[in-house]
Write a structure and sequence with these properties.
Layout lengths: L9 E10 L6 E7 L8 E2 L2 E3 L6 H13 L7 E6 L10 E10 L12 E8 L10 H12 L1
Parallel strand pairs: 1-6
Antiparallel strand pairs: 1-4, 2-3, 2-7, 5-6
Length: 142
């Protein structure tokens, strides 16, 4: 089945971008334009390109999907449940960023049909395991 000795998962990055509002920050979500989970909300993110660092991929994906750039990101965890993505085994590296929402106007691009700030206390139905990633990021904020 494989042309190499060990199966290899794909690698993605996901970005949890919060506003600096306390005690209830908002989180930036995109509405997915493509399958899987077409039409559902998700964190900005995507697949790592060859010869690209994880942080470079996170900054690139954030900009491609939301037009937001110049954000300091911190790696907050790795999520690798083999069933987290219906396309196959995809390991994601999650990043956290905090911004002033009025300084970062988000515009949907790439594979995002819409982009919106949501209160973390009232999230919509979210694709993949992104609820778990958001909760991990919220714990990191505290």
């Amino acid at each position: 089945m494989y042309c190499y000795d060990y199966p290899r998962p794909s690698v993605t990055v996901d970005i949890v971008l919060f506003t600096d509002e306390s005690p209830h920050p908002q989180v930036l979500l995109i509405r997915r334009k493509n399958t899987p989970f077409k039409g559902l909300w998700a964190l900005p993110g995507g697949f790592l390109e060859m010869d690209e660092t994880l942080e470079t991929a996170a900054l690139r994906e954030l900009h491609e999907e939301t037009s937001i750039s110049n954000v300091q990101l911190t790696q907050i965890g790795v999520f690798g449940n083999p069933n987290r993505d219906p396309r196959g085994w995809v390991i994601t590296v999650a990043y956290l960023g905090i911004v002033k929402s009025e300084q970062h106007i988000a515009i949907a691009g790439s594979d995002a049909s819409e982009v919106t700030w949501f209160p973390t206390s009232d999230l919509p139905q979210i694709a993949f395991d992104h609820n778990e990633i958001i909760h991990t990021a919220l714990k990191r904020l505290k």
